[in-house]
Structure formats: C-alpha cells, structure tokens
C-alpha cells in the first residue's frame, strides 16, 4: 500500500476556496488532509489490482480516484487550476514498510490516477448504487 500526498498551492489573491463538512466551513487538519488557504489531500493507493471482483456494494453511490473501465458506471476528472505565480505545489508518494512511511518527491503522472504538474488533474470513477 502507498499513500499519495498532494499539496495544492491555491491562488494567493482573491482566493474563493471553501471547504464544508455537513454544511459547516472547516479548516485545519482532518486525518491526513489539511484545509485552509492552501490544501493538502492524501490518498491511499493500491498500485495494482489483484482480484477480478468488482468494487464492493456499500448501499450508496460512491466514487474512487482512478479510471476503472467496466467496474464503474461513469468516469471523468477533476481539474484544479492552482497558483500561477510562484507555485509551490508538491506531491509525495509514500510507501508503508510495516513500521513507518518512506517518502519520495513525485512529479508527472500516475497512469489513470492523477497528473501532477503546476496544475492538477484527478481521474475519478463512480460506482453504481
């Protein structure tokens, strides 16, 4: 299992970002994620699919990061236009070795998962109810 930490350097001027949870604005750390004028999102990542089973039935419609073809009903992407001036975006791929996380800086793409450059594109899929 791996973890991907993507830090988004949001616009410094006229930033209209807002994060809500159950209708209330939130800021600060929530698990491995940070919400404020800039945002850090963390994703647990399984680099290979080791079963032929479909995604689990949860009784709700849900989405996952990545394009999964026949297993999901809709695929698309979320594009984030990050800071243009002095962009400080970063992305780290971390691997759990059973004791702790080892971290390495990452740029480029993780096929069918995300593109990480000065801007960000997250590929998403939606499962059926």
Compute the gyration radius: what is it? Answer: 16 Å
How much of the sequence lies in strands comes to over 45%
Q: How helical, in percent, are the residues?
A: under 10%
Order of helices and strands: EEEEEEEEEEEEE
Tags for this model:
mainly beta, six-stranded antiparallel β-sheet, five-stranded antiparallel β-sheet, 13 strands
Q: What does the model show?
A:
It is built from no helices and 13 strands. With 129 residues, it is mainly beta. It is globular and about 45 Å long.
Ordered list of secondary-structure elements with their pairings:
Layout: E1 2-8, E2 20-21, E3 24-25, E4 28-30, E5 33-35, E6 39-45, E7 63-65, E8 74-80, E9 90-96, E10 101-105, E11 108-110, E12 114-116, E13 120-126
Antiparallel strand pairs: 1-6, 1-9, 2-3, 4-5, 5-6, 7-13, 8-13, 9-10, 11-12, 12-13
Give a brief rundown of this model.
With 129 residues, the protein is mainly β. It is built from no helices and 13 strands.
């Amino acid at each position: 299992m791996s973890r991907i930490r993507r830090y988004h350097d949001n616009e410094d001027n006229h930033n209209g970002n807002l994060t809500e949870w159950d209708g209330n604005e939130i800021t600060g750390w929530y698990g491995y994620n940070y919400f404020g004028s800039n945002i850090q999102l963390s994703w647990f990542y399984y680099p290979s699919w080791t079963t032929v089973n479909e995604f689990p039935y949860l009784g709700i419609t849900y989405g996952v990061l990545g394009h999964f073809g026949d297993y999901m009903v809709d695929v698309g992407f979320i594009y984030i236009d990050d800071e243009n001036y002095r962009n400080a975006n970063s992305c780290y791929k971390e691997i759990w070795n059973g004791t702790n996380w080892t971290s390495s800086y990452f740029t480029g793409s993780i096929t069918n998962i995300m593109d990480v450059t000065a801007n960000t594109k997250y590929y998403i899929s939606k499962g059926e109810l």
